[in-house]
């Protein structure tokens, strides 16, 4: 998990350290929350059509490692991206994203929160990336903004309609809490000598947790790293401007494991029984345990493009899977090429909310996101044969890449907002007709790179 206020800078050339790409053990999931992504008028319009530079870089680096971007959401400068190893994708369901503005009395999105919620092997997870009010004196306002975001964000999900209903919540971002009372000289000495613990008691977030119940259920690892704000750009030197802002741990990662529901005889001294929702939560907690451990919590000091340093957290989740079978199994029927119409065969393995908006996408092996398909076909519109166990879907030869390549098929369920089945890789054969006619590959192949800038 990464949080970084990038201060409108474009991404650096190398983010290997940021993503721990050289780590001997690859993570299953990446969650990346950025703040102050550049959102000037021209860039914001282009980013609405094309991937922003940060998303593009991260997808291009992670796709070859067999990660795909499952979901993302942006609100002005706030950007949240969720990546998963391909093997987990059919078990990530009910994906939804939302946002809350808190800037300019709730009308402006320079401050606020963006979130992605989903079900991971049946366990409900929510990721909340926030950028809260700045300046030393606004600690209480930051808590108020956080409470407002928590109270107002809702999801179309019976199991977890609000953030606190989720089994596990991660809260991170530029939360902007400062170190109060201590003077600049004392703070700098503690940093130079790495006596960070002497500053903890005056960290505003730690102080607010002692009196604000909404914060008390959130856990955080020890702040055993340098405060991540404010630095002179392109340096490791704290603010030397006229303002000389005091260093602070503004950039944080916290988590909340949903409190376990108590059995009826322990619910309270009045012995009031559990309602149906809490009873179901109790049964879920007992049958499908979920544990979390934080393995790493630190800043990455080598990056200097911003006045903030990025913060990363590495977590281990221990869970019992509620399901291990995808909702759909699908495969390419027979040989595929642009010379003949093709057929997809799929079988529902479990009931799921299918609709006329479901589609099957053809993807190049190593695709980067759900939207990175070569072509797609509507499941209901193009069904040619149907029984209870096996369904055939037609794909026109006009939609098949002429030069061929290694591909996979993915079934996208509109109701669940996710891919619920992925085929084994298969070979799309090069078109013999196209080869004989000497057709130009850049005009005919969905797998080719875009044509040159002059042609564009």
UniProtKB/TrEMBL annotation:
GO CC terms in record: endoplasmic reticulum; plasma membrane; ruffle
Pfam family, one: Exo_endo_phos2
Gene3D superfamilies: 2.60.40.2840, Endonuclease/exonuclease/phosphatase (3.60.10.10)
Coiled-coil features, chain-numbered ranges: none
Superkingdom, taxonomy of origin: Eukaryota
Domain Inositol polyphosphate-related phosphatase, first and last residues per copy: 1-323
GO annotation, biological process: negative regulation of glycogen biosynthetic process; negative regulation of insulin receptor signaling pathway; negative regulation of phosphatidylinositol 3-kinase/protein kinase B signal transduction; phosphatidylinositol dephosphorylation
GO MF terms, alphabetically ordered: inositol bisphosphate phosphatase activity; phosphatidylinositol-3,4,5-trisphosphate 5-phosphatase activity; phosphatidylinositol-4,5-bisphosphate 5-phosphatase activity
InterPro entries in the cross-refs: Endo/exonu/phosph_ase_sf, IP5, IPPc, SKICH
Family: Belongs to the inositol 1,4,5-trisphosphate 5-phosphatase type II family.
Protein name listed in UniProt: Inositol polyphosphate-related phosphatase domain-containing protein
Organism: Oreochromis aureus
Protein encoded by which gene: inpp5ka
């Amino acid at each position: 998990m990464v949080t970084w206020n990038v201060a409108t800078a474009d991404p650096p050339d190398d983010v290997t350290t940021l993503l721990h790409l050289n780590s001997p053990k690859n993570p299953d999931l990446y969650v990346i929350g950025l703040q102050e992504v550049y959102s000037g008028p021209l860039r914001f319009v282009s980013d609405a059509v094309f991937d922003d530079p940060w998303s593009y870089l991260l997808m291009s680096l992670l796709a070859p490692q067999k990660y795909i971007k499952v979901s993302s959401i942006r609100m002005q400068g706030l950007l949240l991206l969720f990546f998963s190893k391909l093997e987990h994708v059919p078990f990530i369901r009910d994906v939804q994203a939302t946002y809350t503005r808190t800037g300019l009395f709730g009308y402006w999105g320079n401050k606020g929160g963006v979130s992605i919620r989903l079900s991971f092997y049946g366990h409900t997870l929510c990721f909340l990336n926030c950028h809260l009010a700045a300046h030393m004196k606004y600690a209480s306002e930051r808590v108020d903004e956080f409470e407002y975001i928590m109270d107002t964000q809702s999801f179309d999900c019976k199991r977890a309609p609000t953030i606190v209903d989720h089994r596990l919540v991660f809260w991170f971002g530029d939360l902007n809490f400062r170190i109060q009372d201590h003077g600049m000289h004392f703070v700098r000495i503690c940093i130079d000598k790495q006596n960070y613990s002497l500053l903890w008691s005056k960290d505003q977030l730690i102080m607010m947790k002692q009196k604000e119940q909404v914060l008390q259920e959130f856990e955080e690892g020890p702040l055993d790293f340098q405060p991540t704000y404010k630095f002179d750009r392109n340096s490791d030197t704290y603010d030397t401007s006229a303002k000389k802002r005091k260093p602070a741990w503004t950039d944080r990662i916290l988590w909340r494991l949903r409190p376990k529901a108590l059995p009826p005889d322990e619910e309270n001294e009045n012995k009031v029984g559990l309602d149906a929702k809490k009873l179901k939560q109790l049964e879920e907690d007992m049958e499908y345990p979920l544990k979390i451990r934080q393995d790493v919590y630190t800043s990455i000091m080598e990056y200097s493009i911003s006045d903030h340093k990025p913060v990363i957290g590495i977590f281990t989740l221990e869970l019992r899977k509620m399901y291990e079978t995808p909702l759909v199994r699908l495969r390419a029927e027979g040989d595929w090429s642009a010379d003949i119409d093709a057929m997809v065969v799929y079988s529902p393995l479990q009931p799921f909310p299918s609709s006329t908006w479901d589609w099957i996408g053809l993807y190049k092996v190593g695709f980067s996101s759900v939207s990175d398909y070569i072509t797609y076909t509507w499941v209901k519109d193009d069904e040619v044969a149907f029984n209870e166990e096996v369904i055939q879907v037609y794909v026109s030869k006009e939609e098949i890449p002429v030069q061929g390549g290694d591909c996979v098929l993915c079934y996208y369920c509109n109701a669940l907002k996710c891919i619920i089945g992925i085929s084994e890789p298969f070979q799309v054969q090069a078109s013999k007709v196209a080869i004989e006619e000497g057709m130009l590959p850049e005009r005919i192949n969905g797998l080719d790179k875009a044509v040159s800038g002059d042609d564009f």
